[in-house]
Amino acid sequence: MANQPTVQMIAANGIRHSVAQAGDGPPMILLHGWPQTKHAWRKIIPALSAHYRVIAPDLRGLGDTDKPDGPYDLLTGARDLKALIEAMELEKPYIVGHDWGGLIARRFALEWPDLADRIAILDVAPHEGALVNLNVTSALGLWHFFFLQQADLAAELIAGREKIFLTEFFRGKCYDPDTFIPECVDDYAQAYATPGAMRPSLKYYEALFGENRALEQRNPGGKITAPMLVLWGTSGGVGAVIDMMKVWGADADNLTGKGFDNCGHYMAEEIPDEVTQALLAFGGAEGGAYHVSTGST
User: What local confidence, expressed as pLDDT, does residue 285 receive?
Assistant: First the structure.
């Protein structure tokens, strides 16, 4: 099973989750973002599965996982994660989250602080911090927050043009569009062009300014107690416009982090070797502890 993922459907929290697995050892869960699927992890699963039992689900409403009418807020995503952990009888997994997957990992760690061994966040900032500190530069980078809020209209405009939309969407968020986009855009366009796929995915954005903002009042002053690693890209990534150590430092007491100049938002696909090394080192699989760096490499 090592290195070659197998996929199965697992029932948890009232829906069926499409889950890829590879390897043996302690559990590591990989949570992707939008507009991606578990395909986002294809370049790093083989190396990680030499050390971990790697588990990569499609998030609720995305990929091959069920697409219920709702809800799609971050607490529901965290409950999906908890239910998967219970259904698969996992103990204290190492959780890695990118984009929406990173925000689900954050909510999970705030709600159930003793259930994760450690948390790694790839190029996403808590939305509340990003919105409070909104300026012209960051607003331009977050234009899709506002467009995708108009979910019915956005879905109608994108329908039949998924590859065109995703090509332009990815272009401003990766370091090398001419390499990154041709390599992956067909897979994602096909996934989101599947009948009934796009509209449920936009419900994540419908919850952004309502339910998710309200969730910030659930754990006032709460901190993530598990060790946390934050990685970001400075060339098209969130770390280009947000001080990642500052915003995540408000959440976590045990935080380390590092930025990469040769990377945009899609870290596991753009710089898979560097991400793999960082995740393994942070978990102690190679080279011990991963030390904080507030600069870039």
Answer: 74
User: What is the pLDDT at residue 294?
Assistant: 38
* Residue ranges of domains in the chain: 6-138+207-282
- Which residues, other chains included, contact 140 with Cβ-Cβ below 8 Å and sequence gap of 6+? none
**Encoded tokens for 190:** 């096909």
Rounded (10°) CA dihedral 110, 47, 275, 51: 40
CB atoms within 10 A of CB 51: 21
Q: Nearest to residue 12, comparing CAs of 84, 104, 60?
A: 84
Q: Which of 142 and 291 is assigned the larger pLDDT?
A: 142
Angle, helices 100-111/74-87, rounded to nearest 10 degrees = 70
Interatomic CA distance for residues 76 and 203, integer angstroms: 12
Cα–Cα distance measured from residue 263 to residue 271, given in angstroms and rounded to the nearest whole number: 7
Confidence label for 286 from pLDDT (cuts 50, 70 and 90) = low
Residue 142 has what pLDDT?
85
CA pair distance 38, 55, nearest whole angstrom: 10
pLDDT digits (tens, 9 = 90+) for 194-251: 999 999 999 999 999 999 999 998 877 789 999 999 999 999 999 888 899 999 999 9
* CATH architecture of the domain with residue range 6-138+207-282: 3-Layer(aba) Sandwich (3.40)
